[in-house]
Amino acid sequence: MRTSDPVIPPAAVSEDTATTQIVLAFEDNRLASALFGQYGQNLALVERRLGVKADSRGNHVTLDGSRGACEQARRVLEGLYEQIKRGIEVGSGDVEGAIRQAIAQGSLFDFDPAAVPAAFEEINLRKRPVRARTAAQDGYIRALKRYSLVFGTGPAGTGKTWLAVAQAIQMFERKEVDRIILSRPAVEAGERLGFLPGDMREKVDPYLRPIYDALHDLMDVRIVERALESGDIEIAPLAFMRGRTLANACVILDEAQNTTSMQMKMFLTRLGENSRMIVTGDPSQVDLPPGQVSGLAEAVRLLDGVEGVGHVAFSAQDVIRHELVQRIVEAYDRVAPVRGDKK
Questions:
Q1: Phi and psi torsions of 81, nearest 5°
Q2: How do the residues of the chain divide into helix, strand and coil, expressed in percent and rounded to 5?
Q3: Is the pLDDT confidence value at 338 over 60?
Q4: How does pLDDT run across 97-111, given as a tens digit for each residue?
Q5: 149 and 268 in contact (C-beta within 8 Å)?
Q6: What CA–CA distance (Å, rounded) separates 57 from 72?
Q7: Domain annotation for the chain: domains and CATH numbers
Q8: For a Cys staple, 314 with which of 178, 200, 290, 318, CB 3.0–4.6 Å?
Q9: Could you tell me if 75 and 4 are in contact, meaning their C-beta atoms sit under 8 angstroms apart?
Q10: What is the DSSP string of 58-85?
């Protein structure tokens, strides 16, 4: 890949806001097309988020805008192109993550390589690597690798469960643990599902579907099915954890905001030798009866500062779904204090 020299106006050369033009040339037309996205949607996202104009022609991209913004856009596109060269598929979420990393690193003029990691943390899986897309996700992955018990709290779409499952799969594939145990409380989000037909697994599947989706996204489907049949991957409601000691396992509790105080204590005290626990939940979406204390909020408060326990709090700025989801979360957060919503 070649980058042409930036065209810089003679006036205000040292100013970050001075307008400039940078032309990027990518060697492989096919890879460049994948980088730009279908109908140029990836370039359009770069334009909206960084305030530059990006025109593509063949394997070339011309960036117009402030010097700082063009430099950030260049780093985004060059970094994503390197990922594609490594065979990693790039979607809108990856583009958004690269943009946020570039923004965190700053512009050409205030970028300090020593202060900001060259790249966010990765979880390397057999199927494909999983890379953090925001600073909070980067801190979350680092916490998952360091602590025996990690709490991940924040709104939907921030990658709490997905990254937790990825970390569990990595430990399982490296034989650091013998089993993956995935659980969540069977609490309905405003609906009544207790009279669904079928056996126990069929009854609890609706509650656990997000976990199944993460497994199938990050592992080969045949391996997932074999592991489920053999018990190497176990998916069960929280109530099934009582009385057990979970050793040599990576244990994930999802939707933990819907646990009671006693349920959370019961779950946390299941931790056995050579095991890791990851607890995720959104404190703003509690479906417990009015007046019932959320076990997640209580546990985060009680265990704050305890050695071996990590906590990463995500915000609306970390949402990596459709860009509209972030604005929806922010809108609800603005009215929550007025309505007295539970946190």
A1: -60, -40
A2: 45, 20, 40
A3: no
A4: 788 778 777 654 444
A5: yes
A6: 20
A7: 2-105 (3.30.1370.10), 132-339 (3.40.50.300)
A8: 318
A9: no
A10: TTEEEEEEEHHHHHHHHHHHHHHHHHHH
Residue ranges in 62-218 assigned as alpha helix (H): 67-85, 92-105, 135-146, 160-173, 200-218
Find how far residue 320's CA is from the centre of its chain: 7
Structure tokens belonging to residue 23 = 């032309």
> Quick count: other Cβ atoms within 10 Å of Cβ 297?
20
Residue 118: how many other CB atoms lie within 10 Å: 8
Q: How far is CA 298 from CA 27, 124, 160, 163, 259, in A?
A: 54, 33, 19, 23, 10
Provide, rounded to the nearest whole percent, the portion of the chain with pLDDT above 90: 44
pLDDT in tens, 182-206: 998 875 544 444 555 555 556 666 6
Residues 253-285 as b/e (b if ≥16 CB within 10 A, e otherwise) read bbbbbbbbbebbebbbebbeeebbbbbbbbbbb
Closest Cα to residue 14, out of 101, 95, 110? 110
Q: Is 121 strand, coil or helix?
A: coil
